[in-house]
Amino acid sequence: MEPTDIVINKSAAIPTYYQIMRQLQDMIQRGVLVADEAIPSERDFCAALNISRNTVRQAISKLVSDGLLYKKKGIGIFVSQQKAKMNQPLSRLPSFTEYVLSQGMAPVSKVIELGLVTPPLEVSKALECESYENVISLHRLRLAEGLPMAVEKSYLDSVLCQKVLYADFNHDSLYDTLRNKCGLQLTHCHESIELGFCDVETSRHLDIPTGTPVFHRTRTTYTKTGAIEYVISQYRVDRFKFHLEVSL
Ligand code: GLP
Questions:
Q1: Would you give the end-to-end CA distance of the chain in angstroms?
Q2: Residues lining ligand 1, CB < 6 A?
Q3: Mean pLDDT per 10-residue section of the chain, whose length is 248 residues
Q4: Global pTM?
Q5: From ligand 1's centre to the CA of 131, what distance in Å?
Q6: How far is the CA of 142 from the centre of ligand 1 (A)?
Q7: Are 139 and 222 in contact (CB under 8 A)?
Q8: What distance in angstroms lies between residue 209's CA and the mean position of ligand 1's atoms?
Q9: 3-state secondary structure string, 6-20?
Q10: Minimum-distance ligand 1 atom for the alpha carbon of 172
């Protein structure tokens, strides 16, 4: 590749390092850049794009820490062997833990918040509860192989799911807890996915700039007797894709 294959818009609200990073990432994911191919040096990028060394370094360091590029000391920067994007089928909607394990990766969660809250209107409607009834709120960052994948905020019925308040979700799966500790049988869910843009807090957790497009997902999970969980999540678009297979 030539350094001028990268196009920078200096008047855009998106930081320059991020524009470079995303374009390189895109070229790697589309196979334009292949494994072990060298990319231009930091100096060549700086000269061709008229930007500072720090800006290029920031973009490249991020891709190195994400495992998309690797450096050979004194020789150059190369494209790593690529792991596939997480490719989740929509015909079955397993838990995050089940899905990541099925891809041969290690799921990890970091609890951001767990407690009782009064439900926002969207939540009380989905859970069919009164707006003054407390619900459990579980807010987590979800990672696979140490990389941030999604932020999920689950709202749960505070009576039937009471034991959720005492679980350790840095290690436990929510669906396992609902099944094994709360004795609930999850039967089905409704899910919707649309385009969203991440806010300041989410961008900090997902390690992407504020305003970056994300998959905004909402899911209502049911037992035979009604809705038990309503989840609002933001998934990184560069690490996930969804596919649907239906018979005609
Ligand atoms: C997925 C779903 C969420 C659900 C979660 C449970 O990520 N999008 O709606 O709450 O799985 O995951 P786990 O059982 O791993 O905690």
A1: 43
A2: 95-97, 152, 154, 173-175, 217, 219, 231, 233
A3: 90 88 86 90 92 93 86 90 72 84 90 96 91 92 92 96 95 95 94 94 92 94 94 92 80
A4: 0.75
A5: 24
A6: 9
A7: no
A8: 24
A9: CCCCCCCCCCHHHHH
A10: 16
